[in-house]
Amino acid sequence: MILLTFIAGCTEKQTEVLENETGISEDAIITHKTYGAFTLPEMQLQELTVNSTAVVFTTSDNEGKFKKTYEKPFNETAFRNLTGLFEENKFFQMEERYVPQEGQPVVTDVGTLEVTLKEESREKTVIIDPYYSEYMPESLQEIDSALVELRAYAVSTSPEEAERIAESWIENAPTYSFDGFDLELESHEVFETFPEQQILNYTFTSRHGGYGNRTDQVVTEALTPHTIEVTVSEGEVRSAIIDGDWDEIAQQPVERSPENGNGTEEDLIEMKYPVSEEKTPWNQWYEEGNIQFIKAPTESELITAYYGAVHNIDIFDTQTVEDCAPGYPCNEFYIIKIKESDSPRMENLGWTKFEEN
């Protein structure tokens, strides 16, 4: 794969400009741009740009606001392999637009893809609308897969870098900086979501009880062991929970769902989404390679993973049921349980509240 070639190539310093054997110049610029998909507003426009020295990925809304930029180094060997892929698959001979053909399913809410290769003397853009792999020839699918892999590389954080980020953050956070010591890494998991998430679990000891900066508080002088779970994504700490009870980012206790006699579902509501022949957002997300599972996921696992990773919404239960209103034919729906506070966002994503007849 291109990334493996690039990583291997990074171990040796490039001392000379290598001859390009692909027929595509080394000053070429490749872009992979998507827009119009049913996704978060701040990610409506996603653009990957690749040249012989860097891989740059940007996300923004359609007006260029909320822009985020991710950049990783690239080298001439890896770039030559990439342009070779374009040459082998005859990119300049491809059609300018690929759309659904007769008999193919029509997929909605996935947006449009534009792949461009630009040189000083020529330029080619291929459009896939909608952006769905079955609408592309295999040669274009191969190019698209390589560029999606580079997009993941651009936003990725190496395990070593994630540990440096997490440990530096903990050491400067209020609880540990007040009286903590003996920070040790216990476990480190990497989840191949998009963006990638890394979960790091540490232990440490405080010289006093309590959390946060306790300078003006009456504290007990007792060695207190702690655990802290840190989530690192896109090079930043996104979550840090001490002992499962204290939110170190918000500096407040972790919010708990109010309990009743049967559990913790008092603030949960049910919402529904129609089952149809159209491809769902979570299946499209999975097919685009934005997440990987050890084995093929169930529909429930995929729904939970998609809304958790892409929209940061917890799904507590999923099932499929028939909803039969008097005088109307029965319809099949996906039913999920979520926190009531998440319902407005889910309504914006096409879900409606479910009420049993």
Structural overview:
With 357 residues, the protein is an alpha+beta fold. It folds into 3 domains: 2-155, Mago nashi protein, CATH 3.30.1560; 159-253; 268-353, no CATH class. Helix content is 24%, strand content 32%. It has helices at 2-9, 76-88, 138-155, 159-172, 174-179, 281-287, 299-311, 343-348, and strands at residues 29-37, 45-50, 54-60, 68-73, 97-98, 110-118, 123-128, 180-191, 197-206, 224-233, 236-242, 246-247, 252-253, 268-274, 317-323, 331-339, 352-353. Strands 4-3-2-1-6-7-5 form a 7-stranded mixed sheet, covered by helices on one side. Strand 12 (246-247) and strand 13 (252-253) form a beta hairpin. Helix 1 packs antiparallel against helix 2 (76-88) and helix 6 (281-287) crosses helix 7 (299-311). The protein is flat, with a radius of gyration of 24 Å. The protein starts with a helix and ends with a strand. The model is unreliable at 2-21 and 260-266 (pLDDT under 50).
